[in-house]
Amino acid sequence: MCRVFSLISVPSGAKFFDLDLIRKHNMAHEALLQEYEARRARALAGGGEEKYARRTAKGVWNARQRIDYLMDPGSFIESGLFGSSAVYPEMENETQTDGKLAGFGRIDGRDVCLVVNDFTVKGASTSATNSKKIGHMKRTAIERGMPLVLIGESTGARLPDAMGSRGMGLLLGNDNTQFRRLREVPTAAAAFGPSFGSSTWLMCQSDFAIMHKSAIMAVSSPGLVSMALGEKVSAEELGGWRLHAEVTGLIDQFADTEEEVFDQIRKFLSYMPSHHREAPADVPVPAGSGADMAKVFDILPESRTQVYDMKRVIKCIVDKDSLFEMKPRFGKSAVTALARLGGKSVGIIANNPLHRGGALDADACRKIVDFIVMCDSFNIPFVMLVDTPGFQIGTEAERAGAPGKIMNFMNAMTLVTVPHISVIVRKSYGRAYVCMGGGRHSDEVGAWPSAEVSFMSPDFATKIVHGVGHGEPGFEEALADIRKGADVWGLAAVYAAQSVIRPQDTRDYLIRMLDVYKLRMSKGVGQHLMRSWPTSY
Amino acid sequence: MARIEVKSEITGTVWQLKAKPGDKVEGGDTLIVIESMKMEIPVITEDGGTVTEILVKEKDPVSEGQVVAIIEE
User: Fold this and answer.
1) What is chain A's mean pLDDT, rounded?
2) Test mutation, A243, A309, A327, A355, chain B, max B CBs within 10 A
3) CATH of the domain at B45
4) Which residue of A has its CA nearest to B35?
5) I need a surface site. Which of A152, A219, A310, A530 has the fewest CB within 10 A?
6) Residue A84 to residue A97: CA distance in whole angstroms
7) Contact B40/A305, CB-based, under 8 Å?
């Protein structure tokens, strides 16, 4: 266009082809391109070579290294490379990209939206331009149906940008969808190093949150805590990976290495659809899947006083090497895991007698509910494997608000719209029987011959019903009577178990039943009645 | 060297000690067995290391969340 303009704007009488003028315009183009390249180089340099080199020396990856590792080669296209501080234009050269890199790329051939914080630029603190980038990535992901990946490392809100009433009014709260979570696209988040403020918030709002062991997730830094409260606390104690993996349950996984963080994100996304209006993709069934089923019943000890690791049972049943556990150190009497059965994504919810004998405490309930909500929101059928003596009782359980957590669990089970099958492996007592899919709280109940269902453990029921305790005359006879009434055949007789199955047939049974109950009329898409379920509730 | 507190997940009575100070352990190993709800419930360490202290003895009552062993990672 410029060249045409130069030709038609020559003064009358001049030569039609004014070569000098054309050369001048060509030089202007060159100058523009030179400026472009110079600006691009400055933007790509982020916080500068020295800062990048210091991180590299410590074995910490830089933002662009993280992008290169996560994305399919050559697939990343950046959005906002030339962004910088909108609050202080004079700081353009110190705020390259405004500290957060955004863009589109592919993971295993599938388009995703991505934000990766660049800690070398103002500690990747949140300000006006980079907030617009995050907002645009989130909006595009949701409107066009792409997973969203958020890689955090941040000092929190940028100061002084957000200081004072003008700063607050300009920077905070102007997008009321910023923290709206309707589970429309799978969201995976990671936290590295200091991850205060938005990096912590986004972890809490994601469907999969993984923490590098270097990361600290907290509302504020130990320094501010010390100043404001006089509380001396280490960063680890305030928001280290152990706290979040074992106590708060705010993260799903943790990792020792950078590679592991991104490998886990990639693996998580492989189980998920791109958005909530499609079913997850099938994959080929790995050779050797189901090979250990013949031995699955041997995992159960014959003595009912002894415990076992339910994860061994799960590994036998699901496709080979497909088990992907969530929150392994939180609420450990329950196991929640993504996996595949016959090449199809499936959620696994199981009691684990190895911990608390399988009794469900408040943490285990919360973990299961989080997982049910995710599976139902993203059209992932799930399987429940039941061996629980019931909900955890005692003062600790009550202090943790167990009844509220139990009713959340109960409520969630009434709102599930994806196929879900329950298999009673051993014990299923009391209200937990219903929460774990008993009655019509699952599409189909199968039970092993070892299943034992009653309102409470036969030992305690014997004392209450017959008034005799351990060691007292008549106890053994009374216990045998109570136990007989709890066996699987009563459940099958009244059609509360639709099938009693040989343990070694469990894998085939589940694959067949998930196919029987598939959502034919909606192409595998559920109703998402829990899509606005509160985070970490 | 991180000092890791291993806690009982459940209220009950110590039935067996499976580890002693000086033992090298791996994540997933059972250190102590608690009798609770008529079951034998293991106290399992998530992290490997060396056991430096066992803070209970057989037949001791333990409560949920009580630190029962210390491991140096």
Assistant:
1) 93
2) A355
3) 2.40.50.100
4) A305
5) A219
6) 5
7) yes
Say if A356 is an interface residue toward chain B (CB within 8 Å): yes
pLDDT at A339: 98
pLDDT tens digits, one per residue of A257-293: 999 999 999 999 999 999 999 999 999 999 999 999 9
Interface of A with B in 286-345 (CB under 8 A): 305-307, 329, 332-333
Distance, in Å, from the CA atom of A447 to the CA atom of A269, rounded to the nearest integer, reads 32
Q: For the residues A96-103, what does the mean pLDDT come to?
A: 97
Burial class (CB in 10 A: 0-12, 13-18, 19+), A260: middle
Chain B residue with minimum CA distance to A389: B37
Domains of chain A, start order: 2-42 (no CATH), 60-270 (3.90.226.10), 293-451+492-522 (3.90.226.10), 457-486 (no CATH)
- Determine if the peptide bond prior to A160 is cis (ω within 30°): yes
pLDDT above 90 (res A407): yes
| Rounded Cα distance, A98 and A87, in Å | 11
- Judged by CB atoms closer than 8 Å, whether chains meet at B44 and A457 is answered as no
Summarize the confidence of residues B27-34 as an average pLDDT.
Answer: 95
For position A467, what pLDDT does the model report? Answer: 85
Tokens of A416: 């599930």
Interatomic CA distance for residues B12 and A505, integer angstroms: 37
CA distances from A69 to A46, A188, A266 (A): 18, 16, 11
Chain segment A463-500, per-residue pLDDT in tens? 888 888 888 888 888 888 888 889 999 999 999 999 99
Q: Does the distance separating the beta carbons of B64 and A394 come in below 8 Å?
A: yes
Interval A106-114 mean pLDDT: 98
Q: Which domain holds residue B64?
A: 3-72
Q: Which regions of A352-509 does DSSP assign to beta strands (E)?
A: 382-388, 420-429, 444-447, 452-454, 499-500
Domains in chain B: how many in total? 1
The pLDDT value given to residue B1: 66
Burial of residue A3, with CB atoms counted within 10 A of its CB: 0-12 exposed, 13-18 middle, 19 or more buried: exposed
